[in-house]
Amino acid sequence: MAGQKGKEMIIKIGDGTETPAFTTLCGIRSKTLAFGDTPFDVTAPDCTNPENPLYRELIGGGLKTCDVSGDGVFKDSASEETFRAKKMSNDPVEVFQIIIPDFGTVEGKFHIDTLEYAGSQDEAVTYSIALSSAGAFTFTAA
Q1: Cβ–Cβ contacts within 10 Å for residue 71, how many?
Q2: Class of domain 6-36+63-141
Q3: How open is the CA angle 125-10-3, to the nearest 5 degrees?
Q4: Domain segments of the chain as ranges
Q5: Quick check: 100 pLDDT over 80?
């Protein structure tokens, strides 16, 4: 994968329908996408592994996670209103797409963990978001 500009990573929110149409969350200046896979510790006190007598043993296949965060300025009211309404609802879970050109697209249900607003007197109101996967997610290579 060649180097990419950070602005080319896009976060989109679904419209809540069965086959969602997606709206780009505009003005996100910094974005992070993190995949996790919590391993299982299978270390036993009577471990007889001569190659690894003093270290823990882990096996994969644990809890798979995907976390997304970002901050910036909402450029239009449509994406801000969609995101805020979903966060304030009784079920702040929605389908999102995270697109990284030349890498791929992650799509699935995400819980909106936080939506924060901030601002100083001389600058635009900024926001920060955090999302956590809330079920299976897919990765489609570019």
Answers
A1: 17
A2: few secondary structures
A3: 115
A4: 6-36+63-141
A5: yes
